[in-house]
Each structure stands twice: as C-alpha cells, then as structure tokens.
Specification:
Length: 330
C-alpha cells in the first residue's frame, strides 16, 4: 500500500498533460484506462496505480458517482470540506448540489489553505491536468486507505438532531431570519430546530429529512439573498494575455469562446473546451455538430485559420488560431 505523499507526487507528475487533439478526450491516460471519455477520474486512477495506491483509492474508476459511492460504502466518505487533508480525493458538483448522485468532477487535494480553500490537481480541467484552487461546489471527499492514513473526522459535516456549536447557532439565526421561526439561538440542535428546518425544506421543495446538508445549505444561502432557488456557481474566466505559443490552454479556449459568442453562441466563458463549446465551434465552421473534434472538424478549422488542412490539431493549428483570435478575425 502506498502513501498520500506518493499519490500527490504521482498527480504532480501529470501536470500539463493534454488531450490530442483538444476536445478529443484522448491521451496516454485514456489509452491506459481503455477508452476515450471524460478523464478526470481516470487521472485519479492512473496516479493511484502509478503510486501503488489503486486498492487504497477503491480501485479503477471513470465514473465519479460510482467512485464516491465506493468510498461511502467503505466508510471512508465525508461530506463537505471539514477535516480534509492532502491526498484526499475530492468530488465536485458544478450545479451546486450536495448529493453523490450529482457529482461530475474529481481531483486530488495537494494542500489545504489558511482561507479554507483547497489546492487540487485535476485531470480533464480545460482539457488538461492542472492545479486549481477550490472552495465552492464541493460535495465531499473520500479518504483512501493509505499506509498510515488519518481517521476521518467524527462528523460527516452535516447538522442534525444532537449537533451543537457555532454552526448550529448560525443555522438557528438564519431560520429565524428566513422563516420567522422564533428559535432560541443556543447552538443546540433539538426538536424545535428540527421542526423549523423541516418547514424550511418543505417551503423550498427540498427533501424533508431534518438534516442540514449541502443542498439545504445552498438553498439557505439563496433564501438569505431573497432568492427562491439555489444560486448557480459562476464560472471564472482565466485572465491574462493570450500568447501565440501553439499551446491550447485555458486562455486560448476562453478567447475562442468569446469569439464564438460574438458570432451568436451563448457560451459561459470558462476556458474549458466542453461539449457546448465544441458544438458551437462546429456550428460556426459549418460541420456536423456532434461535439466530437475529429478530422472533419479539424480540417474545417485549419482552412478557416489558414493552417495546413491535414486533420491533425497540432501546435501549428493552435498558433494560427491564436493569431486570428488576437487579431479579432476568427
């Protein structure tokens, strides 16, 4: 059995790994796994295998939901960020939901920061393996059974009957604001707090279980802001000057998304070459909108930017694209 440090080292060795071509979900990691598909969890499995941690990480996975459920079934799952450590496997739901069934991304924790955020290493983020700083959209984390792994925190990060402390006082204060519950703010999650919480869950059409988990917390945040539905997370576009370097990274992708939006697309400018961006590019190029960046799409792109139309998206094609994007002529 390997260690958390070995797992993190294996992930660091993958930094900068790309798809070839961009948007194809193809690289040496997907070749190792056995098929070309969303490869964030394949990256975790690959690093686990390279560091002797595959069994510790619950095995070989490509589907994030099944991977998180495997940690939960093994008693190695924790909702939220409380108690998270370097080497933990952290799972995200970009819609802001808090259930395992909604998970759509995963990474490995490299460091825990003083502001409560985490630094992660993730595959398939902007079609690359990159280091990210995260705090929002975390569903929870799994703690692999590394050699010498620390035990999980005793709490699963959710508030329920019997919970005590500052978090309960905050909940009681918020229920009083939103529901006019008249609770005594004493930090004791007793029957009155449970009843008020269930009333809140009923009003906002949540599962009425009396447990203050991620979905209820997201709805509370929206309700405090006067909303009637959870506030979806806003993508943060990458910042910086687009260099003509032949590397298709987040800055190039974000510039491409802005250009496509100027031609009628309605893309979130997040620097990620996701299916909506791929289809918008295909629509602009006048080819089949199947979301797969294959030879036909690449040749159409190459003709558009003045690159050699060989159907292979290499650095030469990206260089020509970057030049067009910087000139505002794409």
């Amino acid at each position: 059995m390997g260690t958390a440090a070995g797992m993190v080292a294996a992930m660091r060795a993958l930094l900068g790994t790309r798809e070839s071509p961009p948007g194809s979900n193809h690289n040496f990691i997907t070749t190792w796994y056995g098929f070309d598909g969303a490869w964030c969890d394949m990256t975790v499995s690959y690093a686990a295998n390279q560091s002797g941690n595959l069994a510790a990480c619950m095995g070989k996975f490509a589907w994030t939901v099944a991977h998180a459920q495997a940690f939960k079934n093994a008693g190695r799952w924790h909702y939220g960020l409380g108690g998270i450590r370097s080497g933990d496997i952290v799972f995200f739901d970009w819609s802001g939901g808090g259930s395992i069934s909604g998970i759509d991304h995963v990474g490995v924790v490299e460091a825990v920061n003083s502001d409560g955020s985490i630094t992660t290493i993730e595959g398939n983020t902007s079609d690359m393996c990159l280091r990210r700083r995260r705090k929002a959209c975390v569903v929870g984390y799994g703690r692999p059974a590394y050699n010498g792994a620390a035990p999980l925190p005793s709490s699963d990060g959710m508030l329920r009957r019997g919970s005590t402390g500052t978090a309960v006082r905050t909940l009681q204060t918020n229920l009083n604001k939103v529901m006019k519950s008249g609770l005594t703010v004493d930090g004791q999650f007793g029957p009155a707090t449970e009843t008020a919480l269930k009333a809140f869950q009923t009003r906002y059409k949540l599962e009425v279980d009396g447990i203050y988990g991620p979905k209820t917390a997201a709805m509370m945040k929206a309700a405090l802001a006067g909303g009637s539905a959870p506030i979806p997370p806003r993508p943060r576009p990458p910042t910086g000057t687009l260099k003509v370097d032949g590397q298709f990274g987040p800055l190039t992708c974000a510039a491409l998304q802005r250009s496509l939006n100027s031609h009628g697309a309605s893309l979130a400018v997040d620097g990620a070459m996701g299916p909506n961006t791929r289809r918008a590019l295909q629509k602009y190029l006048g080819v089949s909108q199947d979301g797969i960046i294959g030879p036909n799409t690449i040749r159409a792109l190459q003709r558009k930017v003045g690159a050699t139309a060989d159907g292979i998206w290499g650095s030469g094609t990206t260089t020509k694209l970057q030049q067009k994007l910087n000139a505002g002529t794409f």
